[in-house]
Prior knowledge:
Layout: E1 2-7, E2 10-14, E3 18-22, H1 46-54, E4 59-63, H2 74-77, E5 86-90, H3 96-104, E6 108-112, E7 116-120, E8 123-132, E9 135-144, E10 147-153, H4 161-168, E11 173-176, H5 192-217, E12 221-224, H6 250-260, E13 267-269, E14 276-278, E15 284-286, H7 297-307, H8 309-315, H9 321-341, E16 352-356, E17 363-367, E18 372-376, E19 384-389, H10 391-398, H11 404-409, E20 414-418, H12 424-431, H13 437-448, E21 453-458, E22 461-466, E23 480-482, E24 486-488, E25 495-497, E26 503-504, E27 514-516
Parallel strand pairs: 3-4, 4-5, 5-6, 10-11, 11-12, 12-13, 16-19
Antiparallel strand pairs: 1-2, 1-14, 2-3, 7-8, 8-9, 9-10, 14-15, 16-17, 17-18, 19-20, 21-22, 22-27, 23-24, 24-25, 25-26
Helix pairs in contact: 9-10
Amino acid sequence: MRITFLGHAGFAVETAGALVVMDPWLTPQGAFDSAWMQLPRNHHLAPRVRELLATPGKERFLYISHEHKDHFDPEFLATLTRRDFTVLVPKFKRAELQEHFARYGCKRVIACEDSREVPIKGGYIKLFVSEQGTNRDSSVMVRGDGQCFLNINDCKMHDRLARVISEEGPIDVFSAQFSGAIWHPTCYEYPRETYADISRKKRDSKFEAVARALESVQPRAYVAAAGPAAFLDPALHALNFEDVNIFPRAPALFSFLEKRLPEAPTRYLEPMPGDVLDAGTLAFVSQVPERVTTENFKAYLETYAKDMAHLFVERRRDLLGKEVEDILSRLHEELQRKLDLLDLHDRVGMPLYVELTEAPTRLLRVDFKRRRVEEVPRMRDTTRYAMKVSASDIVRVLDRKLNWEDFLLSFRLRLSRNPDVYEPVLHGFLGVEVADMREFCAGLRAMEARKERTVVEAGGKRFTIQRFCPHQGADLSEGWVEEGRYVVCPRHRWQFDLHNEGACKTNNSSLCAEPLLDKPEHGRPGRGGDKAPADMPPVDKAPVEPPRA
């Protein structure tokens, strides 16, 4: 098995009988309205990937893990003229990927349910699908030539890795995201010290997630991929050089892992786009001459930014007053349509203010309780959530050039909230498309309806708790305990305080924890038929804040 790194989360895996190209993000336009650019740059690999997907003699597959544009690159895929390959996509409730490739004109499209196995000569490809609320993702495993590659990219399946390995067997090469990919705290108006503190905790939390994944998977090699992007827009360029943020590079991760897992036999690899790895020997068959290092990083980014400067000159222009008026009216209508379909509106206890920078005295106030959007001259609520954005950026959402989640990931907005508490329904209101709002609400209700409980031991005591995390449904029986009192979700590292009835440290959710007063000598305490997975062992580690907000 040969694995060619295509940059970011992209790979081309070749076995004796098959080729699988994974998440090729190669367009020179980057992603999220050019806010994210590939790091290191990989645009030169586009002809090579086109050649691979057109090479006869092997069964060829294109795998797209999810809809985010740093994985699903319609601009590059449109350049493929020969399309006699099979497309593998996860089967989500939202059928955007299936519908896109149904129109695309390839050999066939296989929409895979969770754990769907697709046979290839001498092995198989297997997809693992995860879908909770607004979070949709998947992972892929390729087994062939006596080796196995598991690529979970951004997929939050950490709570099921141990079970996957027990069912699938040993993994030779493993890859998982190690860098942040969210707008908190990046877009929030925090004091510098607060921003650095939140970023540091999130970075360390992400590193800890990788460490625990490696403990579960125990691969022979870990490939650092799905790392940070380059931010080349002049308005975002400073993000590349912050002392502390949620976008660390691979050397920082490797330093952490060497201390955290000093006895681990796993090799840590940081390939450059175009490097080819032999999965059997773990040796690079070939490596590209240009390497991005800690020493040349700043100069590399400055040259890269100059080369791409035209993208940001072309996208900006001054708007006329009438245009701003029209955009404000359209945004008002869009927010009201969302609100009309948000049948969980009464859960949001604060208003949302939306301000166009071109019209600072004409704010839109979203009143969730009254289910009404109104125009006001200023913010009048102390308890509130606020978003500030330029009309020239938000109009691209209204024109359907990018969706709401892509816009949030563009980082071209400023956010604030008081109190500084994550509110899942409000978060969903911002990020979910109008057409998906009812499904978002139904999914949240369905997740909350899961009342199965499990038992955890912490600080020498036993507690019964809800088994599934109220955030996005992760299995807490695969979690752990910190400081003898906090249950930690294995997917997003949320903490729940067993000494406070399982209340979350970050918002108002709870595991409804109850102490067990007696510990029977044989078996487990009766829980009305509840499933009883193994207890979570206590782990004494410093607490971490949740990585998503």
